[in-house]
Amino acid sequence: MFALRPSEKSTSSLLPNILPCRIHHDGAVNVSLRHWSPVTDEKNPDLATAYFRGRKLRGRRVTLPKGYHGVVALPTEKKLSPPEQNSATDASDHNNVNTRDDDEENDGDDGDVEPLPMILETQGTFSHLMVWEHETVPSADDSFVKGINEWIRFAEAMHSDTSQTESKSENEEPQIES
After folding, report:
1. What fold does the segment set 1-20+44-79+116-138 form as a domain?
2. pLDDT tens per residue across span 29-59
3. Which of 18, 115, 164, 174 has the smallest count of CB within 10 Å of its CB?
């Protein structure tokens, strides 16, 4: 499990790029000169053109849904300190140790203690990201473009209160996309 902590230094607003390639490296790179310089389209500021290793890329800016933001974070060696428990809580927990229903299976996990969460340090945040494709602008059906909104809606449906979801869906007309 992970715990997210703000950086001790100020964090910046970033614009992540999803490139149509795989880079088989995940560490630091000693770069003296950057060759990434996307040019925003004059007619539509949500579109851009860039060249990566001589290949033309076209990009589309994707905005995260209202109320959401992305976080770029780095792992640290630090762990979250355990929560302090008072003696009243300990006593009440001690009384409820064996309150399982008879039909529940005993997995042998009763004595296991969850490991403390590792701390991730925030390096920056974002509310937009750029999705790139070779030669053409990514369409609305692009897996990354479509996936961002679909996964967020799916997560909301999974974690929302069912009574709110049902009343909301009863009051709204179904929307059919063509």
Report:
1. Lipocalin (2.40.128)
2. 887 777 889 999 999 999 999 998 889 999 9
3. 174
